[in-house]
């Protein structure tokens, strides 16, 4: 496989991984609200699909630099372990949470409470994104060098 074709596979895998991570984060944030709303209403489904699409579009902007570094290292060292991609995805998800500047909220009387629920969703989204990337491109990392 040529390096040019490998580049397109990596780009495609990265975009699908970002979309999968956005899906996990959007579902995690909106799932508690599904119990309160009737799922028979088309507005609920359309709102969810809008959130998933928006998260899938915004996610690559937050995670491109760290993910590109991780992908570069994995390609150069031919790392093909699913555990590597899942752990690095979790790291990128946590980093995206920190970079998004949604680290704490004020709760009465000036008390700051960390947003751990959202951090958990971001890390879970990163793990899923890392797994999706591994399924598409990570299993054949470094194949272009042969």
Task: Describe this protein's structure.
The protein is mostly helical. The chain has one domain (3-145). The chain is 73% helix and 5% strand. It is built from four helices and two strands. The protein has helices spanning 3-34, 42-77, 82-99, 116-136, and strands at 104-107, 111-114. Strands 1-2 form a two-stranded antiparallel sheet. Helix 1 packs antiparallel against helix 4 (116-136). The radius of gyration is 17 Å and the shape is globular. It starts with a helix and ends in a 10-residue tail after the last helix.
The number of domains is 1
The termini sit apart by: 9 Å
Helix content: over 70%
Strand order of the largest sheet: 1-2
Order of helices and strands: HHHEEH
Radius of gyration: 17 Å
Annotation field: number of helices: 4
What is the residue-averaged pLDDT? Answer: 83
In short:
The protein is mostly helical and 146 residues long. The chain contains 4 helices and 2 strands, in the order H-H-H-E-E-H.
């Amino acid at each position: 496989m040529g390096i040019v074709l490998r580049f397109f596979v990596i780009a495609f895998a990265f975009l699908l991984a970002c979309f999968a991570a956005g899906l996990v984060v959007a579902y995690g944030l909106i799932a508690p609200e599904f119990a309160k709303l009737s799922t028979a209403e088309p507005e609920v489904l359309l709102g969810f699909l809008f959130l998933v699409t928006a998260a899938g579009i915004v996610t690559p902007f937050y995670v491109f630099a760290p993910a590109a570094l991780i992908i570069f290292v994995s390609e150069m060292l031919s790392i093909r372990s699913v555990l590597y991609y899942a752990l690095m995805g979790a790291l990128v998800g946590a980093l995206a949470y920190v970079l998004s500047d949604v680290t704490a909220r004020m709760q009465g009387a000036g008390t700051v409470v960390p947003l751990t629920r959202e951090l958990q969703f971001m890390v879970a989204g990163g793990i899923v994104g890392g797994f999706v990337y591994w399924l598409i491109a990570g299993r054949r990392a470094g194949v272009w060098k042969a």
